[in-house]
Amino acid sequence: xxxxxxxxxxxxxxxxxxxxxLAADLPQDILAKVVSYLPNTLKVLxxxxxxxxxxxxxxxEADPVRLSTAEVRLNLTCPxxxxxxxxxHASGTLVPAVKRGRAERLPVPRLLQxxxxxxxxxxxxxxxxxYEMRGNLVGAVSQWKAAAxxxxxxxxxxxxxxxxxxxxxxxxxxEEALLWLQRAxxxxxxxxxxxxVAATMLGYLHMDGDGCKVDNIQATKWFAVGKAxxxxxxxxxxxxxxxxxxxx
Length: 248
What we know:
Helices cover about 60% and strands about 0% of the residues. By secondary structure, it is mainly α. The termini are far apart.
């Protein structure tokens, strides 16, 4: 069997499982080479890993750099269909539950763990979400923080929000909230929705001297950012500050 025959076509990223099954007896280094030619998505890698032990080993031993950049798409609501030891929905999307509402009973897929350990930001975020669904907020914070340190605006916002709200076993930490919400708000990749909330939280932190010194100038600045991003609460609070002369 040639490399071309064992590798999915460019216009079809769904592996031919029968073809891969026939190639399973090839030496491990050849299988690893084939894996290196596959589309770099966990959807494809999970399907190949489900074929047999040989392919699973080849996928799990893939180049960490490759795993660190693999595309991760996680569906947290659909049920799973087990294919040997893999966790994958019929559509090929990784999911963390056998049935709806039972995410806490399924371990994090090994391939997803490998991707996260290799620094895959989408993988870290996926695991963080899984942990949150299970109520393991300490574990979630660990994954969110790793993704935040890697530069993810989404993760920076979420970990800042968690520390601001104080709804984790770690408790409320206004200084951590201030740090991560500022990073999120200044991140060019931050969505308007997250920016509007982050800026409003930052406004309150500065206005109340929570995690920092009272600074109405900074509070006014952040409420203005929140207003510009469409946050009605920021707009209302900013108006109140101007009307009462508390704008610094």
